[in-house]
Hints:
The complex is a heterodimer. In chain A, 33% of the residues lie in helices and 20% in strands. In chain A, the strands form 5 sheets. A 7-stranded antiparallel beta sheet of chain A has the order 15-12-14-13-18-20-16, with helices on both faces. In chain A, a hairpin with a 4-residue loop joins strand 5 and strand 6. Chain A starts with a helix and ends in a 33-residue tail after the last helix. Chain A has 4 domains: 4-90, Uridine Diphospho-n-acetylenolpyruvylglucosamine Reductase, domain 2 (2-Layer Sandwich); 97-214, Uridine Diphospho-n-acetylenolpyruvylglucosamine Reductase, domain 3; 218-323, Alpha-Beta Plaits; 333-446, Alpha-Beta Plaits (2-Layer Sandwich). By secondary structure, chain A is α+β, with helices and mostly antiparallel strands. Chain A contains 16 helices and 20 strands. Chain A has helices at 4-14, 23-26, 50-62, 115-122, 141-147, 154-157, 191-195, 229-241, 254-263, 286-300, 312-323, 325-328, 348-362, 392-408, 427-430, 433-446; strands at 19-20, 43-45, 67-70, 87-90, 97-101, 106-110, 127-128, 164-170, 176-180, 204-211, 213-214, 218-226, 248-253, 274-282, 305-309, 335-338, 341-342, 365-370, 376-377, 379-383. Chain B is globular and about 70 Å long. Helices cover 33% and strands 24% of the residues of chain B. By secondary structure, chain B is of the alpha+beta class. In chain B, helix 1 runs antiparallel to helix 2 (45-57) and helix 12 (329-339) packs antiparallel against helix 13 (366-377). Chain B contains 15 helices and 20 strands. Chain B folds into 3 domains: 1-211 and 402-433, Uridine Diphospho-n-acetylenolpyruvylglucosamine Reductase, domain 3; 214-310, Alpha-Beta Plaits; 318-400, Alpha-Beta Plaits. The chains are: A alpha+beta, B alpha+beta. At the A-B interface, strand 9, helix 7, helix 8, helix 10 and helix 16 of A face strand 9, helix 7, strand 11, helix 10 and strand 20 of B.
Amino acid sequence: xxxxxxxxxxxxxxxxxxxxxxxxxxxxxxxxxxxxxxxxxxxxxxxxxxxxxxxxxxxxxxxxxxxxxxxxxxxxxxxxxxxxxxxxxxxxxxxxxxxxxxxxxxxxxxxxxxxxxxxxxxxxxxxxxxxxxxxxxxxxxxxxxxxxxxxxxxxxxxxxxxxxxxxxxxxxxxxxxxxxxxxxxxxxxxxxxxxxxxxxxxxxxxxxxxxxxxxxxxxxxxxxxxxxxxxxxxxxxxxxxxxxxxxxxxxxxxxxxxxxxxxxxxxxxxxxxxxxxxxxxxxxxxxxxxxxxxxxxxxxxxxxxxxxxxxxxxxxxxxxxxxxxxxxxxxxxxxxxxxxxxxxxxxxxxxxxxxxxxxxxxxxxxxxxxxxxxxxxxxxxxxxxxxxxxxxxxxxxxxxxxxxxxxxxxxxxxxxxxxxxxxxxxxxxxxxxxxxxxxxxxxxxxxxxxxxxxxxxxxxxxxxxxxxxxxxxxxxxxx
Amino acid sequence: xxxxxxxxxxxxxxxxxxxxxxxxxxxxxxxxxxxxxxxxxxxxxxxxxxxxxxxxxxxxxxxxxxxxxxxxxxxxxxxxxxxxxxxxxxxxxxxxxxxxxxxxxxxxxxxxxxxxxxxxxxxxxxxxxxxxxxxxxxxxxxxxxxxxxxxxxxxxxxxxxxxxxxxxxxxxxxxxxxxxxxxxxxxxxxxxxxxxxxxxxxxxxxxxxxxxxxxxxxxxxxxxxxxxxxxxxxxxxxxxxxxxxxxxxxxxxxxxxxxxxxxxxxxxxxxxxxxxxxxxxxxxxxxxxxxxxxxxxxxxxxxxxxxxxxxxxxxxxxxxxxxxxxxxxxxxxxxxxxxxxxxxxxxxxxxxxxxxxxxxxxxxxxxxxxxxxxxxxxxxxxxxxxxxxxxxxxxxxxxxxxxxxxxxxxxxxxxxxxxxxxxxxxxxxxxxx
Lengths: 479, 433
């Protein structure tokens, strides 16, 4: 099929500069932050308005090509990879803020607005947008919505779905419609709720009505160093079990700390196996009480050293190691894959032991830094070989062992990154055929032709990675 | 009742055992005056599924029943129908205290749930009307929230896992017991507030919160509700983090507290030092506005919040919920007050933008309801006529405004796919879904 007429039509809609078709322009869009897969789109369009998105969708669908919505491409599960080709619709030009209502604490923003830019814009109002994924300086609100993004501070404040009141969406037939509203309790099914986390398979979100929170008047941060991962996990569980839900509760393991020490002077002890990073926010009267109690718990659980910080600068110092951990992994190995799984918080220590065991058994180094407070783990698998080498099978096997261990204690195979391409074949490990059929019925109600981001989320029956078969038979039973 | 009723009742009896099927004497399960021909009490989720399948085959509609505390919510049921009671699905599956979650049968009352978790210093903050008798499944399906919504979250924030029986009898699960989970679509959202029209909830996993160490409520009294709304605005724009901010107007204050004035109630929970600060600040701001304030705690405080929670639902009468962006509450409330008959009362949940109106049916006409809808629409608000005489309900959809046409098409497509022959509470939801 010659694409020339479609290119001309798309150029007429968005302007010549924003309908990309030359191979050197397309190459940027062949992958996202899932580093082990790439597929070139046929075309890339960068619309500037909802109306343009609608016209683009109509034009592309007339030719029957698939559409892959894309934000900043920071997704870690391959959700923005145009596996079947087709047209990538990148929302990065749509960055307007249509309304900030500081009294009702809501804003109406376009999908391409960068998460951190929104929060910066809200600073003068004393407000912020709570979801703070690690990629927030690049990730867009639309991408946050598609993946139901989380972040360290989601422990107390909740994930993206808790902060989205309504969405403007362009459907596969090009119609523009709204779900939800600025007021709560919009009549009908909660389509906003189900659209959040639908990974672009329902339509293209073009605007979001987001809920904003007021900055708390006091913040304190605490860093506790532990000799063992077990002790740090027990301390994290003890904090939660004591009835304290901090704003953030993170753990960094020894390997990550040593990597961070190599890249910046973080000052972590070289022989410690875990650090617990806790942040509490609230009234000036309650924060010191909280920190005091948390400190006592951390001591009781055998902390070697505890530091607390109250000023912004000191707090940033304590966070530095956590924020730079991913970047520092490059010091340890040529390749790193960040996994994203969840276990109930009551099983933290046990699941961390199983992760270590899986790495040892399969001879894969694993570095961990994660959101311990909500049980959201990020084991980073480190290796030197290419992803098309036979050795990569050990990476797949380690991944599968870790996911399986989480499922066995009532956890999940992804807490905040999504299924995308990376984990779609594993949905059947979590859900029965009937569960998956129900999900597909919802997708079909939005997009009966499966035009939007096809082959994402649901199992395709193809190998998880290239030619490497899954080492476990995919189960269909309801576990 | 039903074309095939002669055979449906015996088939249900064979399935469940005769003691769990009631035929004839079913008037206590009437909804809007429509009496079910049969009431059934399945004992587990498989039986719920089997009941739905049998009823589907007999073309009988099914109205799922929890505690019945909010059974009137929705458009009137289409006769004939079968009442499906969930009271036998009331077991505790698991309380994972260290994970701050609980998994319960959908028929467990929130009162019973509290009995399970309070001993470990935890609570479930939904607080719908008559929470003692309301079931977990019913509360989630109807999605009525309570005074602490803005502070502690609503049903869509607190439900993290669910199991449901579908119209064809198959059982599905959604979510799980981790607070973060993006494995597949967030199917819990579909069942929350969908009034049992997509499936019957059989089990729920809920987030719990630690019981705050201290709780006190500042009650500020005044003759003019607008003074109190202004003060509530000051509280909400302050750094304070109150658990609830509510303005009660005349009737409820009098009823609950023996007062004959309107009141602003600010609940402060948490550590003593933080509670004391909030009480001090609110009391000082009240004095600056020349309003009297007192501090309530213990039983008096508990009774007050229970009265607020149940307001609009207690003692019959019309119950209407208006939800607007929270910043528009003073303007909307001012207009509503002049449009409503003097016999009406209202409770304003300022932080969540929710206004509950309680009205005497005698003085409340379709014209008054029209005015409420019009005022709400001017502020992108949503209206639910939660309880009303049948004639008033029949004057239009109990939900307003109408859903945008293309969005409604998607909702219809979902309903059609989940319940193709219309077994599950047909016609009762938005736009007859």
